[in-house]
Amino acid sequence: MLVLEREPQVGGAAISADAFAGTGARLSRYSYLVSLLPTRIIRELGLGLEIEIELARRRYSSYTPVPGVGAAGVGAARAGALDGIASAASAAGLLVDNGDAEATRASFARIGAAADFDAWNVFYEDTARLARAVLPTVCEPLLTRSEARLLVDDDILWTSLIERPLGAVITDRFKNDLVRGVVATDGLIGTFTSPGDRSLDTNRCFLYHVIGNETGDWDVPIGGMGAVTGALEQAARAAGARLELRSEVTSVTPDGAVDYRREGRVERTRGAVVLANVAPWVLRELLGAGGTASAVIEKPEGAQVKVNLLLTRLPRLKDASVSSEAAFGGTFHVNESYEQLQAAYEQALAGEIPSVLPCEIYCHSLTDPSILAPELAQAGAHTPHRALTEGNNDEMRAQLQAAVLLSLNSALAERIEPLLMTDAAGRPCIETKTTLDLEHALNLPGGNIFHGELSWPFLEDDEPRGTPAERWGVATSHPRILICGAGARRGGGVSGLGGHNAAMAVLEGA
Ligand SMILES: Cc1cc2nc3c(=O)[nH]c(=O)nc-3n(C[C@H](O)[C@H](O)[C@H](O)COP(=O)(O)OP(=O)(O)OC[C@H]3O[C@@H](n4cnc5c(N)ncnc54)[C@H](O)[C@@H]3O)c2cc1C
Questions:
Q1: What is the distance in A from the centroid of ligand 1 to the CA of 4?
Q2: Fewer Cβ atoms within 10 A, N terminus or C terminus of the chain?
């Protein structure tokens, strides 16, 4: 097997990098948490035999400060009073502690959401039941919708999470705006949508965020994401794959001819089967006049900005009742109440950077000190990819970075900027990647982190399932070309599922 990769290393969005020269820190540059990689794939590939794959569970699920600005504040900020956000008080917050249910109950009570604590537990018992039913199917041929529904064996659960907009379930079950927001974020990560979205993109995104590990836990890969990809690379080489780096595929034909550019020359290879790890939209372009890849007709659109920072120490919080280690030990949500998420979406839809940018912050070095200095990774949600152009990307990157820092600072008792380490050249250790940067660096169309819209982990009852490729969810409109990456039916995430399922289809004769 020949693997063609245009970058000097394999791994795509699942790599570790020396992003800041001279600091010795190796960051998970893009993706950072693992939930969807099944133990079955780890076992079958012998991952962890020579290179250890070790995933660490986080004690704290999340911390969310009560926002300093509500809807009125958002309006004021829109009118230009951005500094108001940084100074607004937010001295309480919701800490969800997986190791201490009573402390979590007390935290709900402290933010005035006592009634939502039981609702929270019941809701996540429901999602865990869904996870236990659905996750074991992802390494098998696709079920139909009816079969999946039978398997879940709970019509109310099925209807509420698979058929009704996620927003309706959230607003039915939870009263507190902040609690509603925390729940909704799993439906919005990397997806340009609002909780009330009727196309159910939010529900699909939510489903993949709560079924991993059969619990919805997102684990920290010890040694960074590059350790996971390194183990996969090793397994591929051990199985006889030849990896050609700096080799950019420039065209693919339906009969299996692949042109690629390497060291300034165009070379051609041919495969009985071509497994495409690029996004379906990119495959469509590579096929050119040769035909479409699938039903993808619109270019995907991402919705986030990624910021990596190295700090001298963790910042102090406005909320003195919670330690920084606990708050940053899980997912730290900032300005992600339900109302704020909705307002940010509306602004981004209009092509504006939201005046209060919802953010999620992770500090992996608390769980995995092997990557060295305190490292924060932030994802700002609902950024307007549609407003980015080649001409304004630098300016927009600067504005987005400022919006992220402003939002983060609103939850802190001190500004984060003075805590940034400096690199060998004396520059502050902060790097920001817009959706357009992701398109350039990784060939992710529109900077969409999932290669396109996520699809249900089952087939509609009337969808074709006559070929192995269709049954495994890796088909394109050409029998010799299969999708094997995030754009496959159950792809989208560091999971190996696209590759596993494409391989199974090939073994069954595609
Ligand atoms: C900022 C960010 C954060 C994320 N966070 C998480 C997370 O925490 N957890 C999680 O599970 N998922 C996360 N994801 C999603 C996850 O990283 C992807 O779903 C996953 O990397 C998909 O793997 P892949 O191999 O299918 O595609 P990719 O990782 O996109 O890799 C595609 C590869 O194809 C190469 N390529 C592209 N075009 C060509 C060409 N023409 N010729 C040759 N090679 C080409 C690229 O260089 C790249 O190496 C995140 C993604 C991003 C961008």
A1: 14
A2: N
Query: Residue 74 is encoded by which pair of tokens?
Result: 């958002």
Residue in this structure with the two tokens 């910021």, named with its chain if needed: 307
User: Which among 35, 233, 266, 278 is the best mutation to test ligand 1's pocket, defined by most ligand atoms within 8 Å of the CB?
Assistant: 278
Bridge partners, 265 (sequence order): 262
Q: Which two tokens stand for residue 115?
A: 């009634």
Q: List the one residue out of 94, 16, 36, 14 whose CA is nearest residue 327.
A: 94
Take residue 130 and report the two structure tokens written for it. Answer: 């869904």
pLDDT band at 74 (very low <50, low <70, confident <90, very high): very low
Collect all residues with Cβ–Cβ distance below 8 Å to 265 and sequence separation of at least 6: none
What ligand 1 atom has the least distance to the C-alpha of 212?
Answer: 11
Nearest residue (by CA) to ligand 1, atom 10, is: 493
What pLDDT is attached to residue 434?
97
Fill in the amino acid letter for 215.
Answer: T
Find tokens 């984060």 and name the residue.
416
Mean pLDDT of 187-209: 93
Other Cβ atoms less than 10 A from the Cβ of 185: the count is 23
What phi and psi, each to the nearest 5 degrees, are found at residue 494?
Answer: -80, 90
Ligand 1 within 6 A of 449 CB?
A: yes
Q: In this structure, which residue's CA is closest to atom 22 in ligand 1? A: 486
**Ligand 1 pocket: which of 34, 448, 449 to mutate (most atoms within 8 A of CB):** 449
What whole-number distance in Å separates Cα of residue 382 and Cα of residue 353? 8
CA distance 279 to 140: 22
Nearest atom in ligand 1 to the alpha carbon of residue 286 is 41
**CA atoms of 143 and 149, how far apart (whole Å):** 9
Tell me the C-alpha distance between 458 and 248, whole Å. Answer: 33
- The DSSP 8-state label assigned to residue 430 in this structure reads E
Structure tokens at 303: 């919705």
What is the 14 CA–ligand 1 centroid distance (Å)? 6
- E-strand ranges in 172-303 read 220-221, 242-244, 247-252, 257-262, 265-270, 274-276
H or E element: which one contains 145? helix 145-152
Amino acid identity for residue 191 in this structure: T
Whether 96 contacts 62, CB under 8 Å: yes
Q: Is 32 in the pocket of ligand 1 (CB under 6 A)?
A: yes
**265-315 confidence digits (pLDDT tens):** 999 999 999 999 999 999 999 998 666 555 567 899 999 999 999 998 999
What burial letters (b/e) apply to 174-184, b meaning 16+ CB within 10 Å? bebbbbbbbbb
Query: Which residues make Cβ contacts (< 8 Å) with residue 433, sequence separation at least 6?
Result: 30, 305, 306, 307, 441
Q: How confident is the model at residue 77 (pLDDT cuts 50, 70, 90)?
A: very low
Give the residues across from 376 on adjacent strands.
309, 363
